[in-house]
Each structure stands twice: as structure tokens, then as C-alpha cells.
Amino acid sequence: GQNIDQPTEMTATEGAIVQINCTYQTSGFNGLFWYQQHAGEAPTFLSYNVLDGLEEKGRFSSFLSRSKGYSYLLLKELQMKDSASYLCAVRDQVKAAGNKLTFGGGTRVLVKP
Amino acid sequence: NAGVTQTPKFQVLKTGQSMTLQCAQDMNHEYMSWYRQDPGMGLRLIHYSVGAGITDQGEVPNGYNVSRSTTEDFPLRLLSAAPSQTSVYFCASSPRTYQNTEAFFGQGTRLTVV
Q1: What is the per-residue pLDDT across A9-65, written as a single tens digit (0 to 9) for each?
Q2: Are A19 and A70 in contact (CB under 8 A)?
Q3: B96 CA to chain A: closest CA distance, Å?
Q4: Which residue in A42, A45, A48 is closest to B108 by CB distance?
């Protein structure tokens, strides 16, 4: 089975940095994804990690440690539009499972002026 | 480019009614999935398909049926709606690759069962 944990809610100030942690215990692993979801909208892809280390994409970075079952998403220079839920998802073995994703409960980030 | 299209966007059903949620994608993706999203529980996989004619159960399949007769379409059928099926339903598709295969989501169907 799969178990994915992330904090429920975080608050930060515009211009600051926020780090959203995600821990996972899974029977199979073939990559970890982060998605952003604004209220009432569909999730949209942010980042993907399959090897240990840091992936940087503009203001967003994502880190993975497979031995620790741990990932984080780092949001820098926060903007008001970054207020959203951030979903951590683990992919099972692709070949057998059709890109099947298991999601954590999501972390709601509120950016204040 | 439409991407993943879900219809309807909103639906109210009475307990015991049946209905079909439609999902269509125009990206020629082989993988398609249905998720439901409930407050505080993230997205949970209902059913998925790795290609036309092939479907399998996810984490929460009870009360739902799927079929995949074409690559483009993956409808989700509620057999006899129950209040516990009140949720937001998302359809997703992705190509068959073994690398960075992001899933593309439809805009969701908000279903209320009364």
C-alpha cells in the first residue's frame, strides 16, 4: 500500500520562502510529483523527481531523498497568486500501473500581504 | 487544443439514480484515470486504463464502472448513486512513456447526491 503525509496548511508572507514537506511509505516507487491546485480548479503539474537531489524550476524547487522517503517543495519569492493547495503524489511502477498516482491530502498555502 | 474535457461540470442526483460522467482527451494518450477528491483526503484513484479495452480498479472502485472502447474516451458510470459519492471527480490522461510523464487533468465534475 501507499501512505503519503504532508501538512494540512501553511501561511507565509508575500516575498518570503515556504517549504512544504512530504513523507511517503510506498510498496513501489517510480517517481514523485508535485501539483498545484487553485480552489475550484484542476491540479496542474509543477515538478517531478525520480532520482535523489534537487530539481529547480524558476521560483519552485523540489527535493527527493528515496532512502528517507522524503521530498519537499520550495517556493521562493512568494506571490499572492501562489495561494493554492500543493499536492504530493507518488507514482507506482509505470509499466504495470499506467502512471497510477497516489496523492497526499494536499497542503493549503495562504500567502498574506 | 482542448486537452482533457469532462462533462458535465456540475450535477445533482437523487439517491439511487444512475449517470455517466464523460471524459474525452484529444492528445492520443494511452493512460487514463478517474479520481475523486474529498476535503482533506486528496485525490483517490477510482479506476484506470492503460489502453483501449483494458481497465483496472484503483483504491476506491465500489459503486463505479468504467469502459474504454476508444483511446479518446473513458466514461465513469455511477450505478446507483449514494450520498457518499458526493465529491469532485477528476479525469486524467498521460502518454505511455517511462520518464517524466505528467498527468493532465480535466476541469472536474462536481457531483452532489441528495
Answers
A1: 999 999 999 999 999 998 888 899 999 999 999 999 999 999 999 999 999 999 999
A2: no
A3: 8
A4: A42
